What we know:
The complex is a heterodimer of chains A (156) and B (690).
Chain A: E1 7-14, E2 17-22, E3 26-31, E4 45-51, E5 54-60, H1 61-64, E6 77-83, E7 86-92, E8 94-101, E9 120-126, E10 136-141
Parallel strand pairs in A: 2-10, 5-7
Antiparallel strand pairs in A: 1-2, 1-8, 3-6, 4-5, 6-7, 9-10
Chain B: H1 3-30, H2 36-55, H3 59-76, H4 84-104, H5 114-126, E1 168-174, H6 177-181, H7 186-195, E2 199-204, E3 222-228, H8 233-238, E4 248-254, H9 286-289, H10 305-328, H11 331-336, H12 339-357, E5 358-360, H13 362-365, H14 367-379, E6 383-388, E7 393-395, H15 396-417, H16 421-426, E8 433-442, E9 445-452, H17 459-468, H18 480-486, H19 508-517, E10 521-527, E11 531-539, E12 544-552, E13 555-560, E14 564-568, E15 575-579, E16 582-587, E17 590-596, H20 597-600, E18 614-620, E19 624-630, E20 632-640, E21 654-659, E22 665-669, H21 671-677, H22 682-689
Parallel strand pairs in B: 6-8, 13-22, 17-19
Antiparallel strand pairs in B: 1-3, 1-4, 2-3, 5-7, 8-9, 9-11, 10-11, 12-13, 12-20, 14-18, 15-16, 16-17, 18-19, 21-22
Amino acid sequence: MSDISERKIVTFSLGEKMFGIDMSVLIEIREWEAPTPLPGVPMFIRGVANLRGTVIPIVDLSERLGWQKTQVHGRSCILVVTLGDKQAGFLVDEVNDIVSIDPAQIQPAPEIEIAEPGVIAGLIHLVTRGSGEQGTMVSLLDLDVLGVTRQLDLAA
Amino acid sequence: MSEMDDIQAIFFEECAEGLAAAEAGLSAMAEGDTSDSTIAAVFRAVHSIKGGSGAFGHAALMAFSHRFENVLDEVRAGRMTPTKPLVQQLLRAFDILSDHVLAARGEAAVPDDGPMRDELERLLADGGMTGDEAQEPPAPVLADDPFGFEPVVVALDDLDDPTASGESWSVTFRPSRAALANGGEPLLVVRELERLGGRVIAVETERLPTLDALDPADAYLAWRLELPAALHEDELRECFDFMPPDSMVEIVRASAHPDERDDAPAAEIRVDAVTVGPAQTSAPAGGPAEKAPARLEPMSVRVDLARLDHLLNLVGELVIRNSVLADRLAPADQEKVELPQLLRLTRQIQDGVMGLRAQPIAQAFNRVPRMLRDLETGTGKAIRLEVSGEQTEVDKRVIERIGDPLTHMIRNAADHGIESAERRRAAGKPDQGTILLSAEQKGGRIIVKVADDGGGIDRPRVLAKAIDKGIVAPGAEFSDEEIDQLICAPGFSTAETISNISGRGVGMDVVRSNIEQLGGRVEISSVPGQGTCFTMILPLTLAILDGMVVRLGGHRYVLPLGSVIESVQPEPGQLQELSPGAEVLELRGSFLPVRRLTRFFNLRGEERAPEDSLVIVVESDSAGTVGLMVDTIEDRREVVIKSLDQNLYPVRGLGGATVLGDGSIALILDIDAIVAATGVTPRTQKGMAA
């Protein structure tokens, strides 16, 4: 039986780094399939894909967070999540696990200069299979902060 | 939302419809249509607002609509003549009624209706004479009455018990001549009914002849009584046991307010009209029948728009599934499984569902007359409104979204467009300005125009302002059309626009973006001294598009078929580059600008040679006829438009996306935006840089 206060986190990797998002925002995980590219949008929007009849944007999460463009490989997949009243897909390198954690385990992100203030909702120290004795650091992301579904520049 | 709120919401929806119907009717009356059906429609509308307002406890709204209704009832019964001044008065009363509805919704303060209420009361007392006419002697209807009998007006309202409310029985009783001869004394009947708690609310005297023609042995009068709802119908009927069969007795269950004595035929349900006597039928009890109004209007069902949209989405999916089947089955197999029949059925369902969303644009137009009356007061200008094509059916979403742009354009026209009476006279125009509001369907498009006969756009001033605001660089050369377009630029507002009427923060740029969101666009044409015309061009349907699927750099795109004129495979040398990026196609002796879509979509690496490409000649509204270079044409099909802003935001150059038969996505091109974006005007380049 899981504790009512437990949070379920989906962990995934971008390159060597581990990230997590709250399970409650996840709609589905799907295989990578090249989306239809859009003109005149930021580079990190790879295009749009068909999610059961609705058109959703596919975002290269690594590129959006300021790292390099993701190289698509066999285990690349798309996390389809809900952001407010919208839906979007995020390209990630690999989905690892679903873990239940005690909210007390989440440490606030230290106040350091990062490209996207607020996107890291907290840090979790996770000891899992294969992560060795010392465990891994997982950055819990708040994807809504990235604002990928909002038009950044309204000047046009 | 509680159930009560739900019901209340329905009431307000009905109010909105009622107001629209009343205004349409009153406007028609102002135009001279005083047919019975028009007047009855206005009456019905106001009456149902009153009924609902009573039920929901909107006392102020009910009190006002009640007075309004009384006057309308007089007009309807022919006791008041709908003269021009009277109709104007009614229109003003209507405006206050709308304010009351707003107040009941909590969207505005309760209006001060005192003067108008007094005015309505006075109209009732004077038989429809508006202030100008009230002094004239009333028509001498009794001129040949040798006794010189003067009728005395008795305000029956005073007799009413204002505290009584709720349901009641309404009994109308007209004894026949035989009744008096057989000792059926009406007075006794009336007393008996009064003993049961009833009271006389009206005596009909229409049949009363002049005194010299009066036969004392005949019965001329009819009484209308109101009795408590608690009584059983049989108790009432018993009172008429001694009335001969040819007497008229009507027992009606009347709802709401006791003052509703005159309106039973219109909105209440006449449960039964029984002639007392052997032929008397057993009347149904009043209760259940109330819910079945004897309306003549077609039956309708109220449907939540969200459910309609859901249905539309499903139909869209069905259309897609159909094309999947069509893609996967060989023609022979298609016949075997009767696919053509399925396709036809699907198309019919699709048309039907689309039709459900279509509404006459009158719903959006109906609010204009009132606004214009306010504007006339505000500006001191006399303005006539001409409306045409209000029955044009458009998508419900267009009606929802077009309201604000329309409001702004009408305000613009009244405030800036039409000149003051003095200036109009000096220009040799009639004092009264005219605003023309029209809608029509042209091919797959809806054209909505707002035209005024005012002074036209003051181009030097607009240009000066645009330079001042930094929208354009000083010294740049502009055509008249480009200057006109400047008023749609974000941040543009000429100094004089800051008035009470215009300049409420909604600029023409918002108008333009609203219309563009609907997949339409705004055109402006203006002739100095003769007026300005704003044309909104909107797609007929917002959900399904007849498209041409083209291939370009490995991707598929959809062009709206309505814009496509022809396709041309360029011969070597037919395409010439005038300057870098600016190419023209020589086509039958004329030169056609050609845009390469690969450049627009940044697919430069995959560009084909012109000889291996196709040029699709399309008609764009902003730049005339242009050619778009694509790789091949793949198909022609109906596609379901999926908006990009549902999960992203609108992307310039795209009208949306669609899901093709194989489940992949094709982008729908917005030809005007592409042509504008690859054009060379300074403003659009600024737009592209963003």
